[in-house]
């Protein structure tokens, strides 16, 4: 299986060390986030696993420590579907960490049945976009203090099917799980684009990443026919470790070889959709996100 995958997805590698650096990875208890945390720890970074399920997070901490005995890795509680939890997490970070060099907004939900966050937002838009938008806002001072620093937002090729429905962001009138997912992933790209303009002078750069089609728990809400297709063609899906490669590429590649605000796939700069390049929509989404969260982010 791995041989087939290596032919389809050539392995990227780098020996860059990250000693003295601190990283936060959301959704690090499973899948791509777990592999990202593992890679960061192997390179010597201090890694904070931001997890909704602390029991699973602690298991990953022990797993990483068994592989890298001197790893500096801890788990912290974070529920991106609850702004109170996000505030508590950020406060904990400011109380315990002196620096933050990498914020990896990896967590996400995909194509789930309709539900809402604790604050009443549609779950996919609320977690995938608003939760990470708010988290980044709260941690920006630490990122600026630690500059040069980077924010990496995990998007998806599905963003190309997305449209920001400003008239019904909560999907109250018409909910379709795939459309809602695509909207949230387009929001990740637009957030990256707009934030890059505002933070480059602060020494904070931002990148959107498409990890590719990866065999992870995020596929659990697929219907039975799609799940059967995934099982049948599993060898053509990336492993979680391969899915983490583009994230790590944006972590370790020299800043002059990256473009802040850019979209990356398969460990190189890629072209995002036309909708993902719409500066007007990006600015409107930024303003709407601030309004929904009740914050001022200039």
UniProtKB/TrEMBL annotation:
Please tell me whether the keyword Repeat is annotated for this protein: no
Q: Which Pfam families match?
A: adh_short
Record keywords: Phosphoprotein included? no
Q: Which InterPro entries match?
A: NAD(P)-bd_dom_sf, SDR_fam
Keywords attached to this Swiss-Prot or TrEMBL record, sorted alphabetically, are: Oxidoreductase
The molecular function terms in GO held by this entry are: oxidoreductase activity
Q: At the top level of its lineage, which domain of life is listed? A: Eukaryota
Q: Which PANTHER family match?
A: PHOSPHATIDYLINOSITOL-GLYCAN BIOSYNTHESIS CLASS F PROTEIN-RELATED (PTHR43157), RETINOL DEHYDROGENASE 12-LIKE ISOFORM X1-RELATED (PTHR43157:SF54)
Tell me which family the UniProt entry assigns to this protein.
Belongs to the short-chain dehydrogenases/reductases (SDR) family.
Q: What is this protein called?
A: Si:dkey-73n8.3
- What is the protein's species of origin? Gadus morhua (Atlantic cod)
Q: Which gene is this protein's source?
A: LOC115537065
């Amino acid at each position: 299986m791995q041989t087939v995958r290596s032919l389809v997805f050539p392995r990227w590698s780098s020996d860059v060390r990250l000693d003295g650096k601190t990283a936060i990875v959301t959704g690090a208890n499973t899948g791509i986030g777990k592999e990202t945390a593992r890679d960061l720890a192997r390179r010597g970074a201090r890694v904070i696993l931001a997890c909704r399920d602390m029991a699973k997070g602690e298991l990953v901490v022990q797993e990483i420590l068994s592989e890298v005995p001197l790893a500096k890795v801890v788990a912290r509680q974070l529920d991106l579907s609850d702004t109170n939890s996000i505030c508590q997490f950020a406060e904990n970070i400011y109380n315990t960490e002196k620096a933050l060099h990498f914020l990896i907004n990896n967590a996400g939900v995909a194509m789930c049945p309709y539900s809402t966050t604790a604050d009443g937002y549609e779950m996919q838009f609320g977690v995938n976009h608003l939760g990470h938008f708010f988290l980044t806002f709260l941690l920006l001072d630490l990122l600026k203090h630690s500059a040069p620093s980077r924010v990496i937002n995990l998007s998806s090729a599905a963003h190309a099917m997305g449209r920001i429905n400003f008239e019904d962001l909560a999907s109250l009138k018409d909910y379709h799980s795939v459309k809602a997912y695509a909207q949230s992933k387009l929001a990740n790209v637009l957030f990256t684009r707009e934030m890059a303009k505002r933070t480059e002078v602060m020494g904070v750069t931002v990148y959107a990443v498409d990890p590719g089609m990866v065999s992870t728990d995020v596929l659990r809400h697929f219907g039975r026919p799609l799940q059967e297709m995934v099982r049948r063609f599993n060898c053509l899906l990336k492993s979680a470790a391969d899915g983490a490669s583009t994230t790590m590429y944006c972590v370790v590649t020299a800043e002059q070889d990256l473009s802040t605000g850019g979209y990356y796939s398969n460990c190189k700069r890629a072209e995002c959709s036309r909708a993902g390049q719409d500066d007007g929509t990006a600015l409107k989404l930024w303003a709407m996100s601030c309004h929904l969260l009740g914050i001022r982010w200039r």
